């Protein structure tokens, strides 16, 4: 159940109560696609850096090690030793981004595995069954992720099919949650708004899926090539037509600036591979913009990544040491930078929540973006 605690403008401060604990929102979900954060960061580390929600991937886990394997081992929480909420995305995005050959039918999608080429079928029911086997806290509905831009006629038909798929997802999840041998019988379902960059299709779809009274709603199909301005415009158009008593999740977004802009427009949940991916390539986030620790100027720099940061990395290691690790190709370099970046994102969300609670979010947002922009000059 979602409870709206406070609003400042359109920015929302809330909490989502789940079977695996309470999530304070706005929140950033740390992406562990294969039940692990890339960069050798463990579930124990996630607790230490303030992670509230871990995100894993239905498609990838269904292929390796297999959702039935995870079910037999007690579900994803037990499997990866994580006792807080987990969101699993439906696999829809991966079906469309990884499968070179695919055939979309009303019943679902036929495609080939990106690992070994074997033929696979996934539809709404299959996605729900896999996610039920994983026993995540929140399951995402199976949808078609449309390329931007796409022809209007195709987008319209795709969105209508996604709505029909969502109805099937809801029916299947209700069935699975009623079964006595289901691991998590309180699994939540979030629906996904699609519609490309067409405002009217987005709005109509938001209205249609709102009628299904789901546990939460996501805005999908963004951060896939459109400009930031287009993304912000779509958020502004869609959010008012989604239930205001349910959490709103912007999928796959994004940069710290994107997050602040989306919070201002009413978004509660975020996820993105950016902090972990950048960290693995020596790029770290700070209060004053990004640094590339491979730069020669850090060779003798004995200061922490960020003096204002309280993460375990900044408390214990210098820029010079981490640069040395990268140069020596030591795995610890990636681990330290990923930990720092994820702490930065989780701490950013904590500061955002405090700012909304304290009625100073607009000022906070302006100050942060100004700091980051000045660092680029």
TrEMBL record:
<keyword id="KW-0671">Queuosine biosynthesis</keyword>
<feature type="binding site">
    <location>
        <position position="143"/>
    </location>
    <ligand>
        <name>substrate</name>
    </ligand>
</feature>
<dbReference type="InterPro" id="IPR036511">
    <property type="entry name" value="TGT-like_sf"/>
</dbReference>
<feature type="binding site">
    <location>
        <position position="340"/>
    </location>
    <ligand>
        <name>Zn(2+)</name>
    </ligand>
</feature>
<feature type="binding site">
    <location>
        <position position="314"/>
    </location>
    <ligand>
        <name>Zn(2+)</name>
    </ligand>
</feature>
<feature type="region of interest" description="RNA binding; important for wobble base 34 recognition">
    <location>
        <begin position="276"/>
        <end position="280"/>
    </location>
</feature>
<keyword id="KW-0808">Transferase</keyword>
<dbReference type="InterPro" id="IPR050076">
    <property type="entry name" value="ArchSynthase1/Queuine_TRR"/>
</dbReference>
<dbReference type="GO" id="GO:0008479">
    <property type="term" value="F:tRNA-guanosine(34) queuine transglycosylase activity"/>
</dbReference>
<keyword id="KW-0819">tRNA processing</keyword>
<comment type="similarity">
    <text>Belongs to the queuine tRNA-ribosyltransferase family.</text>
</comment>
<feature type="binding site">
    <location>
        <position position="309"/>
    </location>
    <ligand>
        <name>Zn(2+)</name>
    </ligand>
</feature>
<dbReference type="GO" id="GO:0005829">
    <property type="term" value="C:cytosol"/>
</dbReference>
<feature type="binding site">
    <location>
        <position position="311"/>
    </location>
    <ligand>
        <name>Zn(2+)</name>
    </ligand>
</feature>
<dbReference type="GO" id="GO:0008616">
    <property type="term" value="P:tRNA queuosine(34) biosynthetic process"/>
</dbReference>
<keyword id="KW-0862">Zinc</keyword>
<dbReference type="InterPro" id="IPR002616">
    <property type="entry name" value="tRNA_ribo_trans-like"/>
</dbReference>
<protein>
    <recommendedName>
        <fullName>Queuine tRNA-ribosyltransferase</fullName>
        <ecNumber>2.4.2.29</ecNumber>
    </recommendedName>
</protein>
<feature type="active site" description="Proton acceptor">
    <location>
        <position position="89"/>
    </location>
</feature>
<comment type="pathway">
    <text>tRNA modification; tRNA-queuosine biosynthesis.</text>
</comment>
<keyword id="KW-0328">Glycosyltransferase</keyword>
<dbReference type="Pfam" id="PF01702">
    <property type="entry name" value="TGT"/>
</dbReference>
<feature type="binding site">
    <location>
        <position position="194"/>
    </location>
    <ligand>
        <name>substrate</name>
    </ligand>
</feature>
<comment type="subunit">
    <text>Homodimer. Within each dimer, one monomer is responsible for RNA recognition and catalysis, while the other monomer binds to the replacement base PreQ1.</text>
</comment>
<feature type="binding site">
    <location>
        <begin position="89"/>
        <end position="93"/>
    </location>
    <ligand>
        <name>substrate</name>
    </ligand>
</feature>
<feature type="active site" description="Nucleophile">
    <location>
        <position position="271"/>
    </location>
</feature>
<keyword id="KW-0479">Metal-binding</keyword>
<feature type="binding site">
    <location>
        <position position="221"/>
    </location>
    <ligand>
        <name>substrate</name>
    </ligand>
</feature>
<feature type="domain" description="tRNA-guanine(15) transglycosylase-like">
    <location>
        <begin position="10"/>
        <end position="373"/>
    </location>
</feature>
<dbReference type="GO" id="GO:0046872">
    <property type="term" value="F:metal ion binding"/>
</dbReference>
<comment type="function">
    <text>Catalyzes the base-exchange of a guanine (G) residue with the queuine precursor 7-aminomethyl-7-deazaguanine (PreQ1) at position 34 (anticodon wobble position) in tRNAs with GU(N) anticodons (tRNA-Asp, -Asn, -His and -Tyr). Catalysis occurs through a double-displacement mechanism. The nucleophile active site attacks the C1' of nucleotide 34 to detach the guanine base from the RNA, forming a covalent enzyme-RNA intermediate. The proton acceptor active site deprotonates the incoming PreQ1, allowing a nucleophilic attack on the C1' of the ribose to form the product.</text>
</comment>
<dbReference type="InterPro" id="IPR004803">
    <property type="entry name" value="TGT"/>
</dbReference>
<feature type="region of interest" description="RNA binding">
    <location>
        <begin position="252"/>
        <end position="258"/>
    </location>
</feature>
């Amino acid at each position: 159940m979602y409870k709206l605690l406070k609003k400042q403008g359109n920015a929302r401060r809330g909490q989502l109560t789940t079977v695996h604990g309470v999530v304070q929102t706005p929140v950033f979900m740390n992406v562990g696609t294969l039940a692990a954060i890339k960069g050798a960061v463990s579930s124990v580390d996630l607790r230490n850096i303030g992670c509230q929600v871990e995100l894993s991937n239905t498609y990838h886990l269904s292929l390796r090690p297999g959702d039935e394997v995870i079910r037999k081992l007690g579900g994803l929480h037990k499997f990866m030793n994580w006792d807080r909420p987990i969101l699993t995305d439906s696999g829809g995005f991966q079906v469309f981004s990884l499968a070179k050959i695919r055939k979309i039918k009303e019943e679902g999608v036929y495609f080939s595995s990106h690992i070994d080429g074997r033929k696979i079928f996934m539809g709404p029911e299959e996605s729900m069954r896999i996610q039920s086997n994983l026993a995540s806290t929140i399951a995402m509905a199976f949808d078609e992720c449309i390329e931007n831009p796409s022809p209007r006629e195709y987008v319209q038909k795709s969105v209508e099919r996604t709505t029909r798929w969502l109805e099937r997802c809801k029916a299947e999840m209700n069935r699975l949650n009623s079964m006595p041998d289901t691991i998590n019988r309180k699994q939540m379902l979030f629906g996904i708004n699609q519609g490309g960059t067409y405002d009217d299709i987005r709005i109509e779809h938001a209205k249609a899926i709102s009628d299904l009274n789901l546990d939460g709603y996501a805005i999908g199909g963004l951060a896939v090539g459109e400009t930031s301005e287009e993304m912000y415009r779509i958020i502004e158009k869609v959010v008012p037509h989604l239930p205001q008593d349910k959490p709103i999740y912007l999928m796959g977004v994004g940069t710290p600036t994107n997050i602040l802009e989306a919070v201002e427009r009413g978004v509660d949940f975020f996820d993105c591979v950016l902090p972990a991916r950048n960290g693995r390539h020596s790029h770290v986030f700070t209060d004053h913009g990004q640094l590339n620790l491979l730069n020669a100027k850090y060779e003798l720099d004995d200061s922490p990544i960020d003096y204002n940061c309280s993460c375990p990395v900044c408390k214990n290691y210098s820029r010079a040491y981490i640069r040395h690790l990268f140069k020596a190709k030591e795995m610890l370099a990636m681990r330290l930078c990923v930990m720092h970046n994820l702490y930065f994102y989780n701490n950013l969300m904590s500061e955002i929540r405090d700012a909304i609670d304290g009625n100073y979010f607009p000022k906070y947002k302006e100050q942060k973006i100004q700091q980051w922009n000045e660092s680029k000059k």
